[in-house]
């Protein structure tokens, strides 16, 4: 008779399972950059409008960018991040502000 796992004699049976690896899509940080000309209220409005965050959170992020030069606004799929960047850049340009928004792949 052939030995089967769990038959419970003195043999040692090792069962090695290979874990199925599901591919996680890469995520992208959307970054906002400081400049000397875009009004603070405009930046706050942009953050509320395109990132669906509260006024308080928008003020906090805007001030971080103002003080540190750059901040992460959010983390999204490639397509969503690209859309957010395009919306911010287009809205800033149409209002003649030099506000810059960019995206970067998460490590
Ligand atoms: N530094 C700008 C000012 O003093 C305000 C500002 C904040 C601009 C954040 C851009 O992403 C920015 N008016």
Explain what the structure shows.
There is one protein chain. With 107 residues, the chain is α+β, with helices and mostly antiparallel strands. It contains three helices and three strands; from the N terminus they run βααβαβ. The protein has a three-stranded antiparallel beta sheet with strand order 2-1-3. α1 (40-51) crosses α2. The longest helix has 17 residues, at 78-94. It is elongated. The chain starts with 27 loop residues before the first strand and ends with a strand. It binds L-tyrosinamide.
Would you kindly provide a brief summary of this structure?
The protein has three helices and three strands, in the order E-H-H-E-H-E. By secondary structure, the chain is an alpha+beta fold. The radius of gyration is 25 Å and the shape is elongated.
* Count of individual beta strands: 3
Rg over C-alpha atoms, rounded to the nearest angstrom: 25 Å
Low-confidence stretches: 1-9
Bound molecules: L-tyrosinamide
The count of helical stretches stands at 3
Strands side by side in the biggest sheet: 2-1-3
Shape: elongated
Strand content: 15-25%
Secondary-structure element string: EHHEHE
The separation of the N and C termini measures 53 Å
Features:
107 residues; alpha+beta; three-stranded antiparallel sheet; 3 helices; 40% helix; disordered N terminus; binds L-tyrosinamide
Secondary structure: elements and pairs:
Layout: E1 28-33, H1 40-51, H2 55-68, E2 70-76, H3 78-94, E3 100-105
Antiparallel strand pairs: 1-2, 1-3
Helix pairs in contact: 1-2
The site of L-tyrosinamide (TYC) has 13 residues, from strand 1, helix 1 and helix 2.
């Amino acid at each position: 008779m052939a030995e089967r796992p769990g038959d419970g004699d003195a043999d040692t049976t090792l069962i090695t399972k290979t874990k199925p690896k599901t591919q996680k899509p890469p995520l992208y940080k959307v970054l906002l950059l400081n400049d000397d000309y875009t009004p603070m209220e405009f930046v706050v409005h942009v953050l509320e409008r395109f990132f669906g965050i509260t006024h308080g959170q928008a003020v906090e992020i805007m001030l971080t960018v103002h003080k540190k030069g750059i901040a992460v606004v959010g983390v999204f799929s490639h397509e969503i991040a690209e859309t957010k960047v395009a919306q911010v850049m287009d809205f800033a340009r149409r209002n003649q502000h030099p506000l810059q928004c960019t995206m970067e792949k998460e490590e």
